[in-house]
Request: fold
Amino acid sequence: MTEATLGANIVDLVDVDELREEVKKKYREVADTPTAEFHFHTGRQHALRMGYPELPLDQLPEEATEAFAGVANPFFWGLPEPGERVVDLGAGAGMDSFMAALAVGPEGHVIGVDMTPEMVDRATRLARELELDNIEFRLGFIEELPIDSGWAEVVISNGVINLCPDKLGVYREIHRILKPGGRMTIADICVERPVPEGALKDIDLWTG
Ligand SMILES: C[S@@+](CC[C@H](N)C(=O)[O-])C[C@H]1O[C@@H](n2cnc3c(N)ncnc32)[C@H](O)[C@@H]1O
Reply:
């Protein structure tokens, strides 16, 4: 079996529309009530525990960090450089995008993409309040990125690709939007053993 057929098989097993609706339902709650209890950790202390750089994290107010729901630290290999163009896949409420925007400065630019409208609205409002002019948030799927080909120098993502059955589709899109020589720094959940077919079909296991 080739990698391509393996990817296609996962997509065929899962009801992608239903999965996306369930994921949106969960992250709508995070956007609207970030301090509620979830089955995953959220917020600034969670980021610090995972090794996020205190600078520029401590330049962000509480509201810009409280809905952070990542799984690890995509800045482990360093922050983007001043002047770079960055895309944040599944940007959620925008904390990683805000950090990238502070790192790239006025000459750089950051685009965060997320499929949950409440997340995009929240991140857009906060960017405006933080007076970050070098950042924008777009509604869309990371499997069909609303970004021009060859636009980005850096792609970051945190805790999102594990929620996408079509992983090859996501990586094809990353390849399309990155400039030659560009880089990606991705924090995510990986499994080391094949997942049984029954579990792949169970939407609750994807979102839980
Ligand atoms: C675990 S949260 C992480 C959010 C953000 N990266 C962070 O670290 O706080 C997952 C986010 O991915 C988004 N998402 C999941 N699947 C997506 C897809 N196929 N396309 C775009 N966004 C997606 C969800 O809406 C949610 O905001």
Remarks:
- The chain has one domain: 3-207.
